Amino acid sequence: MSRAGFALRVALLPVAVLAGVWLHGQSASVAMTLMPVPDTGPLSIAVKISQGFLAATLNAALACYPLARLYGRVASGVATLIVLSVLAGALPAGSGAITDAALLLQVWSMACFAALLFGGIWLARRRAGDSAR
């Protein structure tokens, strides 16, 4: 790896993390638009669970290949930084009470996000033959 390539990857690290956080927010917004939650009824929890999975799927579909292509073997480390940044932004601010159901939905969404992002990066690296970067 050349010094210029290494410097470019390091310089693009904050951009990649910010883009990952922004993409997560946009994919959550798209999921909420595509799957509106009913006001009442037993399906509201199921729709919220599906929204979390859909948002994670959209995010992984758009982010995995560019991350794996740009960062190669260390793409999982960059994905860890993205997941930790999204998790830090998703934590409830202050000492406000959060219900058990809301906490469970938040944990589900973050678990889907992390699993699909790491799995997608692994698949993209494997598909590309994991060049010697």
Written account of the structure:
It is a single chain. This protein has 133 residues and is an all-alpha fold. It has helices at residues 3-11, 13-34, 43-71, 75-90, 100-128. Helix 3 (43-71) packs antiparallel against helix 4. The protein starts with a helix and ends in a 5-residue tail after the last helix. The model has no long low-confidence stretch (mean pLDDT 88).
The number of E-state strands comes to 0
Mean pLDDT: 88
Please give the count of helices: 5
Q: Share of helix among residues? A: over 70%
The end-to-end distance, rounded to whole angstroms, is 6 Å
The oligomeric state of the chains shown is single chain
Rg, alpha carbons: 17 Å
What structural category characterises the helix and strand content? mainly alpha
Percent strand equals under 5%
